[in-house]
Amino acid sequence: MVLALKELLYSKGRFIMIGFIIVLISWLVFILSGLGTGLSALSTGVVSQADITGIVFEEGSEYSLSKSNISSSLSEEVSKQEGVTDTAEISTFNTSVRKEGTANENEKITDVVLIGIEPNSFMQPDIVEGSTWNTSEQTQVIADASLQSEGYSIGDSIEFSGTDKAVTIVGFTENKTLYHQSALYAQTDDFRDIRFSEPELANGAEDSVSGIAIQGDEVNMAALSEPGSGIEYGTKEETIKAIPGYVAENATIMMMLWFLMIISAFILGVFFYVLTNQKTHQFGVLKAIGGSNGFIMRSVVSQVFVLSLISILLGIGLTYLTVLALPETMPFQLETNMVVIYSAVLLVISVLSSLFSVARISKIDPLTALGRIE
Amino acid sequence: MTGIQLTNVTKKYIENKFEITALENVSVRVEAGEFVAIVGPSGSGKSTFLSIAGALLKPTEGQVLINNQDITSLHEKQLSSVRLNQIGFILQTANLIPYLTAVDQLLIVKKMKGSVSKEDRAFALQLLKDLGLENKENKFPNECSGGERQRVAIARAFMNDPDIILADEPTSSLDTKRGHEVVQLMAEQVKLRGKSAIMVTHDERMLDYCDRVYRIEDGVLTEEVHTQLA
């Protein structure tokens, strides 16, 4: 260990070069990971950030809220199922909004997902700014913070396309997006007013919702969701996977991440191999004066470990600095546990890639120390 | 007895289907406190002799006793322990580790055994002082002269207090004056600390410091009648 550190300090230039490569690789890994998390949150936030076990859908909707339509009266039956501790209605409606009174101007229109929930249910979003709905006359919504960068703020009155209904933003929540669009949370009654702006649109669906989210451990919905029963049950994971584009998006980024890891394993492996080869004579000397294979191997591996650890920490630092420089609208979300996992994987990869050259050490003949073999 | 004894050692190599005898029936015994030189032209088997005595190479036939222990039957792990604990090697081009200071060159030997104590550090500094390397403790090899490097290597060989000291052409890269200095220091330390020392050299100028001189030619070792200076 001491031998390893002394060499690191002595041959700084050489090790800074290798360290720099590890820094760049880990930097890129963390950026990609943050981008991946950010993008998937953008496409699934409303579901993935909610504390739910699963959602009950209309049969044939393929776990998609936008295709599903069931009666809210089902809640009672759903809550009686095995393992279910709580239920909450959820409705979604893809629409677009603009600031009130700008209909005839060139003011921007923003696509949003309107979400209808019952107040005080577990689906109610946490407020990061402003307040939640109160009981005043005005129709009120809670908006995702991403709408702030579109120019909306608390107290703004907004109207929906196709209706003259106007609502007021009273509070902001965060990371609540769906289908890459910002979410607006309204109470179920208000939601219906907006969704079915013309009474005939409702057409007997006065009490319909998109789905019923449930909470509970070891939920068994088999009894309720038999084929032909008109409903189907999707776990949280199934629901997220069914969100359009999510799987393709996620798979692409994951593929880039793991390719990067594999490539880095090879690059580092070759680097350490060349480094070990250069030191053949030196290791021969150490062996001739009595150093065991284990002593030399430990020294090499601990060197790689220390070098990688420092480089990865630098990479993490660089990543957090990069985050400061990224534009608000960029979907970037760095999760501490992902940083920890990828750091560990990178560390393991670099140590493993050095084992390749460590295997060579045992084959070095201490006779090389004599500088000649007769 | 302490010391090293080679009995009827023969070493044969196979090279391009021809058998080459590098050492033939060599027997030599060096007691504690003796400083023995082995001289011979290049290709005479000097290095093979040293490699076998130093537990780096196994003989084809014969026996090597180090402190009465036969090392010819030991396997690699035990051999490296023998080299660490019982043999001090002084290699021809000093062969120091480039990124260690003089005192660390010595302490690394202790490190291989386990840990470095305060006494070890004091002993290392004393050894360097004995070899005239005061104020050079924190110099890296590239900051030392050739003679200084060779003296650090000698100090390193003594660091683990081994019974056997083996030197491979310790003067090959030094001028006459520094060569004499280095060999004289070596002889002093061998006597002072009661080691069995073998120096392989082709440098006839250095033989005056040795108790006995052997000549090696084509793998055959013969003792030379040598008038020792008082």
Secondary-structure map with pairings?
The complex is a heterodimer of chains A (374) and B (230).
Chain A: H1 2-10, H2 12-48, E1 54-58, E2 70-71, H3 74-79, E3 86-99, E4 110-117, E5 129-130, E6 140-144, E7 157-160, E8 166-173, E9 177-178, E10 181-187, H4 188-195, H5 199-202, E11 208-209, E12 211-215, E13 231-235, H6 236-241, H7 246-278, H8 280-288, H9 293-325, H10 336-361
Parallel strand pairs in A: 4-10, 6-8
Antiparallel strand pairs in A: 1-12, 1-13, 2-11, 3-4, 3-7, 3-12, 5-8, 6-10, 7-8, 9-10
Helix pairs in contact in A: 1-9, 2-7, 2-9, 2-10, 7-10, 9-10
Chain B: E1 3-15, E2 18-31, E3 35-39, H1 46-53, E4 61-66, E5 69-70, H2 76-86, E6 87-90, H3 102-113, H4 118-130, H5 146-159, E7 164-168, H6 176-193, E8 196-201, E9 212-217, E10 220-224
Parallel strand pairs in B: 3-8, 3-9, 6-7, 7-8
Antiparallel strand pairs in B: 1-2, 1-4, 4-5, 9-10
Helix pairs in contact in B: 3-4, 3-5, 4-5, 5-6
Please supply descriptive tags for the structure shown above.
heterodimer; A: 374 residues; six-stranded mixed barrel; two-stranded antiparallel sheet; 13 strands; 18% strand; elongated; B: 230 residues; six-stranded mixed sheet; four-stranded antiparallel sheet; 6 helices
Q: Structural class of the secondary elements of chain A?
A: alpha+beta
Radius of gyration of chain A: 29 Å
For the CA atoms, what is the radius of gyration of chain B? 17 Å
Strand residue content of chain B: 25-35%
Going across the biggest sheet of chain B, name each strand in turn. Answer: 6-7-8-3-9-10
Oligomer: heterodimer
Description:
The complex is a heterodimer of chains A (374) and B (230). With 374 residues, chain A is of the alpha+beta class. Chain A has two domains: 2-43 and 247-370, no CATH class; 60-224, no CATH class. Chain A contains ten helices and 13 strands. In chain A, strand 9 and strand 10 form a beta hairpin. Chain A is elongated, with a radius of gyration of 29 Å. By secondary structure, chain B is of the alpha/beta class. Helices cover 33% and strands 29% of the residues of chain B. Chain B has helices at 46-53, 76-86, 102-113, 118-130, 146-159, 176-193; strands at residues 3-15, 18-31, 35-39, 61-66, 69-70, 87-90, 164-168, 196-201, 212-217, 220-224. The chains are: A alpha+beta (374), B alpha/beta (230). At the A-B interface, helix 1 and helix 8 of A face helix 1, helix 2, strand 6 and helix 3 of B.
